[in-house]
């Protein structure tokens, strides 16, 4: 006959494993919710697509939000030359947004400013 509380010890070990596992899951979830810096390679790809259009003079304020697997959204601001008409700018931005979604699977919102407005 054993006087050792084996049930209590086994229960304590299982409880500690559950707490440890829960902590790891919570930490990973909090990191996603609070945000982590975007992958530098992803930033390079977005920059290459945007600046490669030939109509964008400057790109800034890129924000990438990762909401889990397959659900990345982004936004950025671009500046276009003052000689580009509004209709053309709108068309170029729409095409860029569609191309980034097709190439990278990222839904993006691009806001365009004319260099004539700020510089």
Account of the 3D structure:
- The chain is α+β, with helices and mostly antiparallel strands and 119 residues long.
- Helix content is 54%, strand content 24%.
- It has four helices and three strands; from the N terminus they run ααββαβα.
- A three-stranded mixed beta sheet has the order 1-2-3.
- Helix 2 packs antiparallel against helix 3.
- The protein starts with 5 loop residues before the first helix and ends with a helix.
Question: How widely separated are the two ends?
Answer: 88 Å
Number of helices: 4
Q: Which term fits the overall shape? A: rod-shaped
Tell how many strands the DSSP assignment holds: 3
How does the helix and strand content classify structurally?
alpha+beta
Strand content: 15-25%
Radius of gyration equals 25 Å
Major sheet attributes: 3 strands, mixed
State the order of secondary-structure elements, H for helix, E for strand.
HHEEHEH
Uncertain parts: none
State the strand order across the main sheet: 1-2-3
Helix share of residues? 40-55%
Q: What's the overall average pLDDT, rounded?
A: 86
């Amino acid at each position: 006959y054993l006087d050792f509380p084996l049930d209590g010890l086994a229960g304590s070990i299982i409880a500690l494993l559950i707490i440890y596992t829960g902590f790891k899951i919570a930490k990973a979830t909090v990191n996603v919710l609070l945000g982590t810096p975007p992958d530098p390679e992803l930033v390079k790809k977005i920059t290459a697509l945007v600046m490669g259009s030939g109509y964008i003079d400057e790109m800034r304020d890129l924000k990438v939000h990762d909401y889990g697997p397959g659900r990345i959204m982004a936004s950025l601001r671009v500046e276009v030359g003052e000689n580009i008409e509004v209709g053309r700018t709108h068309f170029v931005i729409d095409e860029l947004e569609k191309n980034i979604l097709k190439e990278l699977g990222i839904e993006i919102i691009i806001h365009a400013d004319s260099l004539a407005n700020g510089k």
